[in-house]
Every structure is written in structure tokens, then in C-alpha cells.
Queue: 2 jobs
Job 1
Amino acid sequence: MAPMTTTQSPASPAALPRIAVLATGGTIAGSAADAANTSGYQAGVVGVDRLLAAVPALSQVARIEAEQVASIDSKDLDVALWTTLAARIMALAAREDIDGIVVTHGTDTLEETAYALHLTVKTDKPVVMTAAMRPSSALSADGPLNLLGAITVAGSPAARGQGVLVAFNNRIHSARDIVKTSTYAVDAFQSPEIGALGWVQDGRVEFQRTVVRPHTVATPFVASEAWPLVEIVVSYAGASRAAVDAFVAGGARGIVVAGTGNGSIHASVQTALSEARARGVAVVRASRVGSGHVMRNGAAPDDACGFVSAGTLNPYKARVLLMLALAAGESEPAALQRVFDTY
Ligand code: SIN
């Protein structure tokens, strides 16, 4: 397939795409007393109007309307915000005059929100998330350029039908693939193994590949009011069964295990998970490694234990998909495995 490219050329304001920006907080809206401080700042304190005003070039790229949906540090994100965001995105996308939607977010849980929206928003219009690693007050803050890039991508016809995208540091990633891979660098996001979909620079948007797995309008998933309780446990040297037992006692309907290597699990944790499965708790094996995939029956007897393999999803994204699958009424291992093999 030929690369899909669009280039922004000077246009009359009325001809520019109309983009809605939904702001939720994060470091992109962070501020510190000292411009040299890039770690000890308060996230989510700068309003969306000030973020937009800091990027005069936006007037050449889009007609923008903005909403402050939340003002949080994304470490404190509650999944109820996914429901709010999905509803707001779909309401905006239903308007004929809106061409695309941008969501600003903290980097810490961006990959979870992005995947939740990728699976639940029912629109073909571009939905593009962005963030920043440096607060808005910092020397060489990365937020303004990331915001310009995201709004440029959201206004590009080439971004239609690609699900939720993340524009960050000039690259365009799929929500399904992207993960945060650095605690401090401005190039903090990667799509391990798979790579980015394309790039945005100086008004030019280019996609080199498209998303294969079903998303948005092609899934049965909805962001409901009640997200099933799904927890994550980690396997490591000397791990005990205490976390699994506590989560089961706490009413978890599903547990994702961040296993070692190819999703292998310490014997004591595996025993506890098998017992949890026997009590009806869905168990999904992912890996704590950070790239690669988890082979079904590769490092644990999925068939014998009733476990499900997360494939290429990391534990945090596997939790999102498991919550949605349980909410959609799936609970048997074979049906859940089909879900993980499909989305
Ligand atoms: C957050 O995730 O809200 C704070 C950290 C960041 O955005 O980089």
C-alpha cells in the first residue's frame, strides 16, 4: 500500500478543519516555580486555554474549540473518566462540523486510556491523544509541539478510520501498540516490536502502515458505568500467593498476571491463580518484560488451568481488554481467548 500523506498548506480560516480539544491534565498542563525543574512540578494545573494560547501556529492549522474535562495527574485516574471521555468524544464526533478530536492526558496512564477509548468510541473520525514529559513552565517544554502535532493529525483525512492514535514527539502510534518506555526522556513512548504508524512534522502527516485489528466501530465494547473489577499481580523470585488471595477475597472478577519471560508464573502464584479460576475468576497471562508476546501454553498450561494468553498486550492493556470482555458478558476461557486473539 502506498503511504498515506497529507500536507497542510496555507488555507483561509473557514477552510481549516474544526478540531475539539478535550483536556484532562497531566504534565502537559503541569507547572513548576523554576523553569529548570522537570521533575518536581504539579501536574494538571494549567487550563486548556493557556495551553492552546502557547501555540500561536495553531491558528494556521485548525479552528479549535476546547473543553476542560478533568485536571488530574493521570496516576490518579479512575476508570470512570474513560466513560466520560468516550461519551464526550462520541457526542462531538456526531457533530457534522467537527473533523477530529484531540485528548490531552498525562503520560503515566496514557496507554491505558488510549486503548480503552480505541476499543469503545464509535466513530471513524480521527481521535488523537497527546501528552508531554516536561511541564509547560519548563525550558524546552515538549507540550506545545506535541499539541501542534496532535491537532495536525486530527485534522488529516489520512487519520480517519485508524482508531485512537497517539501523536507524540513527531511520531504517530496506534493506541493498541504504544507504551511508555522512559521515566524522563522526551522520546518516552514506543510501540515495541511493531513500531510507529507514521509521523507528523511541519504540517505534514504521513502514515506508513495501518491498524489491522478491529477497533472503535468494529468492536462490541462500550464504556459502561460499571467496569468489572480486574486486578494485576506480578510474578517474581520468591513471589507468594498473598496478592491473588487478597484480590479474590476483594471480589475481583478477573486477574491479569504480569509473568516473567513468556508469561511464566511462580509455582505458588500459579496454584493460587488455578484455584481462583476454579472459583470463576478470569485469569490472563501477560508478561512483565515490556516487549514480545506471550504464547498460549508456552510457559504455563493454559488449557489445564483455564488461563488465557494476552498475546502482545502488556498487563495494563490486557486489564483494559479483560474488563471490557467481562462487561460484554464473556467469562469462559475459550471465549476470552478469542477476544484476546481478535482485539
Ligand atoms: C501524569 O501522568 O499526569 C503526570 C506525568 C506526565 O504527564 O508525564
Job 2
Amino acid sequence: MKILVINGPNLNMLGIREPDVYGHDTYEDLVRMITDAALGLGVEIEVFQSNHEGALVDKIQSAYGDADAIVINPAAYTHTSVAILDALKAVSMPAVEVHISNVSEREAFRQISYAGMACEKTYAGYGFDGYVMALEYLFKEYGDKK
Ligand code: DQA
């Protein structure tokens, strides 16, 4: 089983950006945690981050025929990007949405998730653990079929 993990804008600034919201651990720490979890599950993993909407759309499209499932934290594009929603619908593969913070308890403009409309599950507010929960969920649901 291969899972593509996609992270959107400003997540490369983890550890620096708003530590009261996102914690002190860095993006490198996050990648290490995801990689270790994938290794433990015996899942092949690719981790991608971009600050650009089109690059995120390109990466989602590239999963078609290459990956079996997607974990995505579209960051700010969660709340604005119909293009990312359409890309997830286009590739039509199991997808799980992750947010480090609990977006449901934040500002009104964070209450809509376009990407979430194409995801079968959302983990929000669990910090970095949400990514591991997403991998475990996808492995449990789809891993044995690979
Ligand atoms: C985020 C939440 C978004 O609202 C925000 O724009 C981010 C990060 C999270 O992981 O909590 O950049 O997706």
C-alpha cells in the first residue's frame, strides 16, 4: 500500500509559526513522525509540502495510478480551494483530512472545509498525532486489500 501525504502552505514553518497554536515541533519532526508510523505499519509513504495551490493540485493528480490513498492537510487552502476539492474528486481515491489545530473551535472563516467534502474522515485538533491516526485508519480500511 502506498499513501501520499500532502501538506499545504506555511506548514514548512512549523516550530516557528504560532507555536501556541501549532506547537514547537518542526516540519522535519512531522515528516520523521509520519515516516516512522508508515514504517511501523509497513506502508510505503511519500510526503510532500508546497505553499502553492497549483503544485498541490498537480501532486494530487499525480497520485492517480501511483498511490492508493491520500492524507491531506491543505492548511489555509482548506477554506478557499475548490481546485483542491475538485482534484481530490478527480482522482477519486480514499482521502483523509488532517488539521493540527482544532479548526472547529477557531475563527468563523475556518469553519468551511472544501477539501473535507472529498475526504471520508477528518482528524482535527490532535496535533501531529492526527497524521498517524489518518495513516492507521487508511491502513485498517484499505491496507489488507493491497
Ligand atoms: C491548519 C488549520 C488551517 O486553518 C490553517 O490555515 C493552517 C493549518 C491546521 O493544521 O491546523 O495553516 O490546517
